[in-house]
Amino acid sequence: GAGVSQSPSNKVTEKGKDVELRCDPISGHTALYWYRQSLGQGLEFLIYFQGNSAPDKSGLPSDRFSAERTGGSVSTLTIQRTQQEDSAVYLCASRVKGGNTEAFFGQGTRLTVV
Amino acid sequence: AQRVTQPEKLLSVFKGAPVELKCNYSYSGSPELFWYVQYSRQRLQLLLRHISRESIKGFTADLNKGETSFHLKKPFAQEEDSAMYYCALKETSGSRLTFGEGTQLTVNP
Predict the structure, then answer these.
(1) Which of A39, A49, A61, B57 is most buried, taking the most CB atoms under 10 A from its CB?
(2) Could you say which of B51, B52, B102 has the minimum Cβ distance to residue A43?
(3) Residue of A nearest to B103 (CA)
């Protein structure tokens, strides 16, 4: 497909387990973002990648969270030792580099930590 | 640091009434501002951007640098406008895109 794809759509995990969330951006989009969407909390910035530059990790809430982007395309967000407060929808977006270009969002991964 | 504030988490109006969703920002540079919308069970999508000065689905938004605001307006709300609306700011020197907390708009029949 031509859009941003995220997998899995839903993930239920036990507290303390590690999870990996995947994002396939639109081909050619050099900027990739991860956000967390919690009920009543809006869209919380986590991390973004821009081409070959060092990623902006300033939004990651703790060292349990990490992300990588391989080959400038697919990105994986990893949450280690999950906690119940990690339960949220994790959104990925991509856009081309440049001023007012639109960010295209994936459908999100709903993570539930039980 | 850049920040986007949407003071209303919930907004409810009747069909045909005017609607205004408020957005204020803080940013030291010249901002690039957007409104995104998420309809029920759909993914987040761009509604409009300030640079285009466009009207989309009857919505407009004007950047007021003096008041650091970018409020979204529509003169006559429709039921299909019910959705979650997010204001967003992109820094001009980079690519970081910061969103507000969102406003859930409900248009009642």
Answers:
(1) A49
(2) B102
(3) A42
Peptide bond into A8 cis (omega under 30): yes
Chain A with chain B: Cβ pairs closer than 8 A: 56
Write the secondary structure of chain B as one string of H (helix), E (strand) and C (coil): CCEEECCCCEEEEECCCCEEECCEEECCCCCEEEEEEECCCCCCEEEEEHHHCCCECCEEECCECCCCECCEEECCCCHHHCEEEEEEEECCCCCCEEECCCEEEEEEC
CB A22 within 8 A of CB A76: yes
A43 vs B52, B86, B94: nearest CB? B86
Q: Which two three-digit tokens encode residue B108?
A: 């009642």
With CA atoms as reference, the chain A residue closest to B41 would be A107
Residue A100 has what DSSP assignment?
T
